[in-house]
Amino acid sequence: MRKLVTLIFVASFALITQTAAQTPAQAPAKPKPVATAAGAAGKPAAASYDRTLLRPSMLKEKAPETFQVKFETTRGDFTMDATRAWAPIGVDRFYNLVKHHFFDNMVAYRVHAGFVVQFGISSYPAVSAAWRNSDIKDDPVTQSNKRGFVTFAQTPQPNSRSTQIFINFTDNSFLDSKGFAPFATVDPAGMKVVEMLYDQYGEQPTEEQDQISKLGKAYLDSKYPKLDVIKHATIVGGAAAATPAKPAAPKPKATAPVATKPQ
Fold first, then answer.
1. CATH classification code of 5-19+65-251
2. In this predicted model, what pLDDT tens digit does every residue of 53-88 receive, in sequence order?
């Protein structure tokens, strides 16, 4: 079964979890219809996914040195500025996922106030299955996991990043020494939108990643209907100068991470 990574706050511990050539001036790749998914009442439903996502080995294009990705959500829009020099392997993966609309119609299933918002499990079970063994090699950590920085989730094992990413709500620089390599930023205005994502389910959805991967968005819509959705994520141009969000008020940090791999 596809390994799912978890970094969850438990007592005084923290965990972070994961399951699994265009230039910025060009239009994003057009999705190729192969499956449909109905959204819950009041939420958008994507008509299809790009069937290239079923073949991860094809998504190997080198990313531009900098580029922007616009995320349109049920709470508003925000933009990520990606910088390839910070984490080239991770940025290449992110670029290819966005270019082929991997994040479209995706639920932000984990919103832990004062820690992170995390997403990256496909709404389509067939896509999740295709990426089950798609891990990439680690990048050196060149930036810090401060407020507004974006990073891939991973296990404590080497080379375990796949498709899940998280946005730091606060200064989580304790993650730097654990190998979490930031690759992008969300500006202060965008963080105001990120902070509005629904967070009242706590860590319960995080503990059900296996079910989410197997059953897709339909499972989340049924059990956690208030979670917000990423309607579209689109490459919109070259990155502006990185301006990380202002630091949030300091909050207690976990002294060590604990990771689990549901089987």
1. 2.40.100.10
2. 999 999 999 999 999 999 999 999 999 999 999 999
Return the domain boundaries, the chain.
5-19+65-251
Q: Which two tokens stand for residue 57?
A: 């080995």
Structure-token pair, residue 188: 């202060």
Edge-to-edge order in the sheet of strand 13-18: 13-18, 5-10, 259-260
Q: How far is CA 180 from the centre of its chain?
A: 13
Distance CA 109, CA 205 (A): 6
Number of residues assigned to the chain? 263
3-state SS, residue 37: coil
HSE-up of 108 (CA within 13 Å, CB side)?
Answer: 30
pTM listed for this prediction = 0.79
Find residue 67's DSSP bridge partners: 82
